[in-house]
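Record 1 of the preview.
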Amino acid sequence: MLRLVALVASCLTLAAHAGEADVLQVRAAEQGGTWRFDVTVAHDDEGWDHYADAWRVVGPDGAVFGERILLHPHETEQPFTRSLSGVSIPEGVSQVTIQARDSVHGWGGAEVVVELER
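->
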């Protein structure tokens, strides 16, 4: 059974304005020992030369537990939400940070910290 454990964390930044990609919201759910993350990202994609191209789940020590690669620009779908299932989070980790990346600036922009309840 899907157990919802963390819901909606919001950023103050509502639009990226062709700068860095911003994480706006995260929903995390534990599913049989692994986690599913639904992440909403905003970025003023400008086509293939400048677009949000990934987001990742990072532990407190900087370990990357999962990464969702975004394979195309989302010029007409802003903000957009994509999911990643099967993310293994070690026991004892109760907080992760969701970061987004764009093809020009790399990792940066607004992040969201998610408290995981087990």
